[in-house]
User: Which sequence fits this backbone?
């Protein structure tokens, strides 16, 4: 396990049986009026992200759609995970150096903010240059800040979190988060056959549910694109290229779901969305040395097939 323990980086930490490593979250909030202690300002905040990670992708996409690229700066980490240093600033196409702190590794950003930090080092990270600290490292929080608190610096006509739809958005967000965004990892990180079988059934039951819901609508909530669609899209766009194979989510391809596939395709071709999707980063990340994934003693449940494409494994 790669983790910070009391500010010391460990590339191969072995927790004791039953030991739980704290999440290590930063959960402050930026507000338009500054009442939270962090005021929305131009050129004050910086995002540390990865094109490979779906949770970081949420924030990249929000910045792009809301026109915040000249308001909030960004450093893009390498998709490689096999390094002993975890997330690194590196030599991949479309990555950048740490243009704010000049660090080589993301864990250095965490200890700069909190020298005795304990927990996993994750993206995205929202950094405040004025106070030299991390504001927040929870993607759902950061996404909400980006789409609600910076309207003074962009075209506020694109409302991705409309007041009249917020209750419905939060309801679908809760379902998508637990049953899809997180569920793909519960499948991939399952430590037993029973855990795997339960997780994959829940995942594909959720996909079946959304397939039915999207039979007569273009987007998840109302008739418009919202932050709920961002949160689902970033997982779906990775499904066939990464989760199906690398995480054993292989009961069906996304392309086997006509409505979900059309939904993903529709969002991908919205203006400026496609340029935030880097399939080379995604594949490198998930097929790199991605610790804890796939117990090779677990038997994959899929694929389900109605023809002879998998004749060597199935009888038609």
Assistant:
């Amino acid at each position: 396990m790669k983790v910070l323990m009391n500010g010391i980086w460990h590339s191969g930490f072995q927790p004791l049986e039953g030991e739980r490593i704290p999440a290590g979250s930063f959960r402050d909030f930026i507000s338009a009026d500054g009442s939270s202690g962090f005021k929305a300002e131009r050129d004050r905040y910086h995002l540390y992200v990865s094109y490979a990670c779906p949770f970081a992708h949420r924030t990249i996409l929000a910045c792009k759609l809301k026109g915040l690229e000249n308001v909030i700066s960004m450093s893009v980490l390498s998709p490689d995970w096999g390094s002993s240093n975890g997330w690194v600033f590196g030599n991949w196409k479309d990555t950048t150096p740490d243009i704010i702190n000049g660090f080589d590794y993301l864990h250095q950003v965490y200890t700069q903010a909190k020298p005795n930090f304990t927990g996993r080092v994750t993206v995205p990270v929202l950094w405040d240059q004025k106070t030299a600290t991390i504001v927040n490292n929870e993607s759902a929080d950061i996404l909400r800040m980006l789409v609600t608190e910076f309207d003074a610096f962009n075209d506020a006509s694109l409302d991705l979190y409309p007041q009249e739809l917020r209750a419905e958005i939060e309801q679908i967000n809760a379902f998508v988060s637990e049953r899809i965004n997180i569920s793909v990892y519960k499948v991939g990180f399952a430590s037993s056959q029973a855990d795997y079988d339960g997780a994959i059934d829940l995942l594909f039951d959720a996909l079946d549910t959304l397939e039915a819901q999207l039979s007569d609508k273009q987007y998840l909530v109302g008739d418009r694109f919202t932050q709920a669609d961002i949160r689902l899209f970033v997982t779906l766009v990775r499904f066939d290229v990464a989760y199906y194979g690398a995480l054993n989510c292989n009961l069906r391809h996304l392309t086997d779901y006509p409505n979900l596939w059309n939904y993903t395709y529709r969002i991908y071709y919205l203006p400026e969305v496609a340029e935030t999707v880097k399939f080379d980063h995604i594949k490198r990340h998930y097929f790199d040395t991605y610790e804890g994934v796939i117990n090779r003693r677990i038997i994959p449940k899929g694929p389900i097939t109605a023809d002879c494409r998998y004749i060597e494994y199935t009888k038609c």
Observations:
- The longest strand covers residues 45-49.
